[in-house]
Amino acid sequence: MTAGVPTEFIPPGPQNFETPPIIHGVDWFTKPVLVSALSVVVIIWFFWGASRKAAIVPSKLQFAGELGYNFVRNSIARDAIGSADYMRFVPYLTGLFFFILLNNIAATIPLIQFPTFSHIGWAYVAAIMSWVIYNAVGIRKKGLWGYFKHQTMPAGVPVWLMPLMIPIEFISNILVRPISLSLRLFANMFAGHILLLVFVLGGEYMVFESGSIAIGGVGIITFLMALAIAGLELFVQAIQAYIFVVLTAQYIGSAIADEH
Amino acid sequence: MLTLVLPLTEAADEAPSPLLPHTAEIIFGFVFLVLLAIAFAKVVVPKFEKAYADRTAAIEGGMNEAKAAQAEAKAALEKYNAQLAEARQEAAKIREDAREQGAQIIAEMREQANAEAERIVTHARAQIDAERTQAVASLRGEVGTMATTLAGRIVGESLEDEARQRRTVERFLAELEESESARQAVGTDG
C-alpha cells in the first residue's frame, strides 16, 4: 500500500508445515494432533449417534450414518474383497476412510485449514497398518510360503520367466505398496496445501506489499484463483481418502484371493 | 491461515525434510486408527448389521404374510366355486328326479285307470252274464209251461202225466240250448 521499498517475497515451503506446539512446552501437542483427535471424536460421536437406536425404519441421523457406512461396506469392501470375507475388514476400512476423509477435509474448513496428512507420519502409520493387515491375513490363510508364492508367482507365467517375475512381483506387491500408499496421500495433501499457500501468500504480497496498482490487480485475480484451487482441493481430498481405502481393500482382497 | 503465516515471518531456516515423520504423530496415528477400528467393530457395525438383518427379516416376513393371505384367498375361492358347482349339480339332480317321479306318477295313474276300466268292464260283463242266466232260467220255466199248454191244446190229449211231460220239456230245452251255444260260439269268434 505504501509506496516504498518492497519487502522480499519468501515463497512457501516445507517450513510452513512446521507449526509450533499449541501449548508452549508440550512439544507433542501439535496442530495435526489436535485436528485428528477432533476428527476421531466427531466420527465416533456421529456414528455412535446414528447407530445407537438403529431400527428397521431409520431416523434421519441413522439414514445419514447408513449412507456413509454402506458406501464403505458395499462399494469398497464388498466389491474389492468379495462377499465371503469382507465383513471382518469393514470396521477398519470404515474407520480408516472417515479418518482420512475428515482430516483431509479439515484443510478446507475455515480456522482449521490444515491437512493432517501433509505430515507424513500419519500417512506412514495408515499405510503400515494396511500393509500389516493384508500381509497378515494372507499369511494366515495360505501360510508363509504359500502366501509368498501367491504374491510373487503369477499363474500362467512360464518357468524361465520366474527369475525375473519373482523379484519384480515381490518389490511391487510387498515392498512398494506401503510406500506408494503413504506417499500418494501425503504428496497430494502437501502439494495441494503448498499450491494454496502460493496463491494466497503470493496474492497477499502482490496486493499489500508490491506497491504497484497493476500488480495489486493481478493479486486480486490470484486470490480468485486460490478460491478455485480450494474447490479443486476439496475434490482431491475426498478422492484421496477414497483411493487409499479402495487400494487397502484391494490389497486385502488379492492377498486372500484363491486364484490370480 | 495466520498460524501458517507466522513461522514464515520468523525467516525460513533449516526446515526438516517433510519425509521424516514426527514420532508423536506416528503414535497418535496408530492410537486413533486402532480406536476407530475398535469403535466401529464393537458398536457401529453390530448395530447397523442388526438393523439390516431385522429389515431383511421384516421384508421377508411381510412377503410371506402376503403370500399366505393370497393362498388363503385362493383356497376360499376354490371352496366357493366347488360349493357352487355342487349346488348346481344338486339342483340338476333334483330336477331330473322330479321329472322321473312325474313320469312315474303318470304311468302309475294310467295303469290304475286301465285297471279300473278293466274292472268295470269285467264287472259289467259278469252282471250281464248273471242277468242273462237269470233271464234264461225264468224263460225256461215260462216257455216250458206255455209250450206244454199249447201242445196239450193242439194234441187234445192231456199230458197230465208229470214224468213224461218233464222228460219231453227237458229234451227240447237241451236241444235248444245246444243249438244256441253253437251259434253263440260262432258269434263271439266273428
UniProtKB/TrEMBL annotation, chain A:
Gene3D superfamilies: ATP synthase, F0 complex, subunit A. Signal peptide: none annotated. Coiled coil: none annotated. Pfam families: ATP-synt_A. The keyword Ligase does not apply. It is a multi-pass membrane protein. Belongs to the ATPase A chain family. This is ATP synthase subunit a. It comes from the Bacteria.
TrEMBL record, chain B:
Gene3D superfamilies: F1F0 ATP synthase subunit B, membrane domain. One of its GO terms (cellular component) is proton-transporting ATP synthase complex. It is found in: Cell membrane. Residues 59-104 form a coiled coil. The keyword Aminoacyl-tRNA synthetase does not apply. F-type ATPases have 2 components, F(1) - the catalytic core - and F(0) - the membrane proton channel. F(1) has five subunits: alpha(3), beta(3), gamma(1), delta(1), epsilon(1). F(0) has three main subunits: a(1), b(2) and c(10-14). The alpha and beta chains form an alternating ring which encloses part of the gamma chain. F(1) is attached to F(0) by a central stalk formed by the gamma and epsilon chains, while a peripheral stalk is formed by the delta and b chains. Component of the F(0) channel, it forms part of the peripheral stalk, linking F(1) to F(0). Belongs to the ATPase B chain family. This is ATP synthase subunit b.
